Amino acid sequence: MPTAAEVLASWRVHDRINLDLLAALPPRGLTAISLESRGRDVGHIFGHMHTVRVAWLRHNSAPGAARLPVFRKGSRPSRAGLRSALKASGKAVEQLLARGLAGEHRLKMFRGSPVRWMSYLISHESHHRGQILIALRQSRMRLPDSIAIQRLWQSWYWGAPA
User: Fold this and answer.
1) pLDDT per residue over 94-108, tens digit each?
2) Whole-number Å distance between alpha carbons of 38 and 79
3) pTM for this structure?
């Protein structure tokens, strides 16, 4: 059985990968859009990832969730705004996970399991990271291998700092 510390470390690695990807985007990267997209560019995908986190935090009555910003449809969040929002929601997710793992909070849905909830969030956001990479590649904004391969993948099995 994994320890609470291992579960929380896994969340931190995942959250850091999102932030590293955002930081590594080329200057026009937030406006990249894949050919088969329904209209969401990279900036909106990052905003969606944050907004979904906030929705789950609010659904679970997480402390401070009501104060977390959300991005409204049609808004164009800046890289700095996205980074700030993702850092705040990532920390709030980590805090709720810790409370759930300690038996101090039972999550709604996911059979009350904080690990199942975290797994859902990681799966959801990893799907969108794939969309981001496709949008960048199709827009001829390929990331360097040091980010696209080493940071986005090897962080998991080399145990990069969380």
Assistant:
1) 999 999 999 998 888
2) 21
3) 0.90
